[in-house]
Design a protein that fits this description.
Length: 271
């Protein structure tokens, strides 16, 4: 007699559900034989999951499920201690903010001072510019999802206040959290803000002049690379503002959003 009949029934039901959603289930012959021998359930016994592989795109999550999955991920991320030096220096982990059902997700490099204090990405000066850009695209911050590759503020030598760039190893350690956020949200497009974010996401080290304005692929999700809003604040170049805007027009086109003549003309020099 099996000691865990209800747990087994639950496993059977979950496997049947996954199959209905189009997930291909694979199992070893031994596991199949074991499960077939198990007295259980009205549900016909599907194979136990050894490996699941989506047949094409993962099936759409049921309503509300994305918010629940993100909420479940938040706890472990906020309690992360994988980088002991950052645990020492951070005020808090900056998980990310926005709509779990977002069509577009913006990814920056790491929290700065303000973000570390407030626990929200892109709330400092660069963040305020990003918010304006998001609004110019026809969205609000609540429509999109905003996150960073590294979720803790990079630590600084004593007495220094300027931000430092995240190190590749720090980003690699943290990347699985962003992967999980992206896997849950399944945005139709990702926007990588700046060379460091792009390097963290794709391992790309070519200059941004070559990488921006082009579609890349992040595990099946189209990824647009553009300049970081902090770069625009620093150089105040109308040409670079226009380049960022052109990159984002490509995103709007990909999302099949209406684009007004006014939007098309932003940052075009009048001369
Ligand atoms: N710059 C980033 O890359 N991320 C933030 O959250 C803030 C500034």
């Amino acid at each position: 007699m099996n000691e865990f009949p209800s747990a087994l029934d639950h496993v059977h039901a979950t496997l049947a559900e996954l199959r209905e959603q189009g997930v291909e289930l694979r199992a070893s012959a031994a596991s199949l034989a074991r499960l077939a021998a198990t007295p259980s359930a009205a549900v016909p016994a599907p194979a136990p999951v050894v490996e699941t592989r989506p047949l094409s795109r993962p099936p759409a999550a049921p309503a509300g499920a994305k918010a629940e999955q993100l909420a479940a991920l938040r706890g472990p991320v906020l309690a992360c201690t994988l980088c002991p030096h950052l645990v020492q220096s951070r005020t808090q982990v900056v998980f990310g903010v926005g709509n779990p059902e977002a069509e577009v997700m913006f990814v920056g490099e790491a929290p700065g001072e303000e973000e570390d204090l407030q626990g929200e990405p892109f709330v400092g000066k660069a963040g305020q510019l990003l918010t304006k850009i998001i609004v110019a695209m026809g969205f609000s911050r609540e429509d999109v999802f905003i996150a960073n590759v590294l979720k803790c503020r990079p630590d600084l030598p004593a007495g220094e206040s300027a931000n430092r760039m995240p190190k590749p190893a720090e980003m690699q350690t943290c990347l699985p959290y962003l992967r999980q956020q992206i896997d849950i949200i399944q945005p139709r497009a990702l926007v990588a803000l700046g060379a460091t974010a792009l390097e963290g996401l794709l391992g790309a080290s070519e200059p941004m002049t070559k990488l921006r304005g082009r579609w890349h692929d992040f595990h099946g999700i189209p990824l647009m690379a553009t300049y970081h809003p902090a770069d625009l604040l620093q150089n105040q170049s109308l040409t670079d503002k226009r380049k960022v805007w052109e990159d984002l027009l490509l995103v709007l086109e990909r999302l099949e959003k209406p684009i007004s003549e006014k939007q098309r003309g932003f940052f075009l020099s009048k001369g």
